[in-house]
Amino acid sequence: MPFLDKKGKFWGLINPVDLVIVLVVLGLVAGAGYKFLSHRATAPVRTARFEFVAEAIEPQVAALVHVGDAVSSPAGPSAVATIGIYAQPAKIVQVEVRPAEVRVTTPRGTRARNPDPYLKDVIIWAQGSTPVTGGSIDLAGEQLRAGTKFTLTSQLYSLVGTVLQVQVN
Q1: Which residues of the chain, if any, have pLDDT below 50?
Q2: Does pTM top 0.90 for this prediction?
Q3: Which domain holds residue 9?
Q4: Which end of the chain is more exposed for a tag (fewer CB within 10 A), N or C?
């Protein structure tokens, strides 16, 4: 029995091009099934708490920030889920609003801080549960690291500021 017949089919059943397409599709389906159905090692879920400061905020915006607000990244959980991060919203547990400090240079060339009579600094402590894996802590849809820019977004406001501290229990 010949391997290829007169029409170019394997054993008279299937065209070689069709066979390659079927094998590629089966490989893609098997790979997707493995990725989505395999049991991965789960990372331990821990409570991450961070201190965040948004400087020189309008007082109307500062008045919107309250303890108990759920905050997340501006991209939202759906965009974050596509890259594999478990986006858990964080909850605000402590808020402090104080006059903003304006940094000025004195006539002698030294730097000084003066309180701004209008603008406010908002210091926020927020926390949430998140799987801690590898070298990063992902909470509210963003990576937490002290000294980095961070965006807190709720239903009513969006604040851009700096993470001052990160604690993991």
Answers
A1: 76-86
A2: no
A3: 1-38
A4: N
Amino acid identity for residue 129 in this structure: S
127 and 48 in contact (C-beta within 8 Å)? yes
How many residues are listed for the chain in this entry?
169
Say what the pLDDT of residue 134 is. Answer: 67
Q: Are residues 90 and 107 in the same domain?
A: yes
Same domain, yes or no: 70 and 149: yes
Q: How far apart are CA 144 and CA 47, in angstroms?
A: 13
Q: Using CA atoms, how far apart are residues 95 and 122, in angstroms rounded to an integer? A: 7
Looking at the structure, tell me whether residues 10 and 56 fall in a common domain.
Answer: no
**Residue-level pLDDT at 33:** 85
Measured CA distances, 152 to 1, 136, 157 (Å): 71, 18, 8
Amino acid of residue 19: L
CA distance 86 to 133: 11
Which residues are registered as beta bridge partners of 166?
Answer: 50
**Number of structural domains, the chain?**
2
The three-class DSSP label of residue 80 is helix
Do residue 91 and residue 144 come from a single domain? yes
